[in-house]
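Pasting as-is:
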Amino acid sequence: MKKIFSYYKPQIIFHAAAYKHVPIIELNACEAIYNNVIGTKNIAEVSHESGVERFILFSTDKAVRPANVMGATKRVAEMITSCYASNSAHFVSVRFGNVIGSEGSVVHLFKKQIERFGPVTVTHPEITRYFMTIPEACQLVLEAGCIGKGSEIFVFDMGKPVRIADLANQMIRLSGLVPGKDIEIVYTGLRPGEKLFEELLTDREHSKPTPHPKIKIAEVEKLDKNEILVRIEALLNNLYSFSKKDVVNYCHLLVPEYKSNNGNYKEQPERSVSQKVEEKAKAELISQIYLKNHAHQ
């Protein structure tokens, strides 16, 4: 990356690369952290060293009160991005929901299922998601990149959340077919780590306006830059010696509001108090050792 940046000398970076498929990430937590967290640190670091003027991280509404590894890694990516901001370098994050028509969109899935005359699969009758169009998302990202003055997290006005079951019914009708008669809608159940609804701000976060009516700034808790970067380094150096549960525990350490919806990672009632304390202390101890060793660097 240093060679590429040295040759092309970019002034603006849009960092959109990430693993985003929630169920797959739940099964591959280490790889998700390596890509979404360490990858963000690497690109932000080289951008900072190369004198990049503006760095825009593509985040997600899943980073708000995360219930899965994907959301937790994106929240950490937001933290990392803010660490590299300065008066001359604007490193910002943009949070938004699903983009209609993008690769992996549920619209593509429904379209294929309707072409095969069903069934159309929806995880839950009440599940909702925020949606925006590709042109709208691109425009707002560019606007937010221009507005940013430091380490802001921008939140887009996504309108009202859409019930996925309603979207499925509409797409079937628009195809000239009748839901429940020509094509069945089958509810498959929430997948590991999946939430019924997404949010753009937590209860503790508030927003303030910007010159653009559809863009707001999330007022998040102030973070200790050195502590975050040291903890990320500790995670990197121990990542592949961790079990999946260790990785999730470390995510809890970095993102306290992260509450896993995955039954494999939730607190197990049969575990003893000593086991719980030991697991939490393991992640904390690694971090404290690194903090101590790097305190004066």
